[in-house]
Design brief:
190 residues, alpha/beta, five-stranded parallel β-sheet, 7 helices, 5 strands, globular, binds shikimate-3-phosphate
């Protein structure tokens, strides 16, 4: 698989996130495959899988496009932050974050100890091609020129995603091989 990967530990206390993580947090842009990869990875690790977007929808009783339409992005971000706080104390869990959640100062540095964050990197072109079929599900890309929007958002977001512990390129990989790669590296690190 064509993957550039890096592993590093951060100073978050005695437990290095790459040594014995108790949860894996998948981050990355829309279309990077967080949910599909997360489900597969959870199966490989025999851990539970949770999706931050689904948690927001469950709690709000509305779909994400409905939340954006009725209350706007800011209200969605508040719900998303609350969902993340609930999910990030779970043990033995693979958590797929929403694409925008890590993109606030300190977010990925302040995750609880034992969290291994993995950035699933995708190009703007690939992200748009993967999400085109069901564009209405992603309000931020439901615009006249989704590619220009994706490029703009990615440029602003990459510095945040870059704070993840590991990065895996996904443009030329299936979610299956990305999940296998993460599971293999976890085994090696563990
Ligand atoms: C968003 C990504 C979406 C969802 C919402 C906003 C973003 O999640 O949280 O539409 O800001 O990038 P996915 O990355 O799972 O599509």
């Amino acid at each position: 698989m064509a993957g550039t990967r890096r592993a590093r530990t951060k100073g978050r206390g005695a437990l290095s996130p790459t040594a014995h993580p108790t949860r894996v947090l998948l981050v990355g842009f829309m279309g990077s495959g967080k949910s599909t990869t997360g489900r597969r990875l959870a199966r490989l690790l025999d851990w539970a899988f949770t999706d931050m977007d689904e948690e927001v929808e469950r709690e709000a009783g509305h779909s994400i496009p409905e939340i954006f339409e009725m209350h706007g992005e800011e209200a969605f971000r508040t719900l998303e932050a609350a969902a993340a706080a609930r999910l990030l104390d779970r043990e033995g869990a693979v958590i797929a974050s929403g694409g925008g959640w890590p993109c606030a100062a300190g977010r990925l540095d302040d995750v609880p100890e034992g969290t291994l964050s993995v950035w699933l990197r995708v190009s703007a072109e690939e992200a748009v091609s993967r999400t085109r079929q069901r564009a209405e599900l992603r309000p931020l890309l439901a615009v006249t020129d989704p590619l220009a929007r994706a490029r703009e958002l990615l440029e602003a977001r990459e510095p945040f995603y870059r704070s993840a512990d590991w990065v895996v390129d996904t443009d030329d990989s299936t979610s299956e091989s990305v999940a296998e790669e993460i599971a293999r590296r976890l085994k090696e690190a563990g």
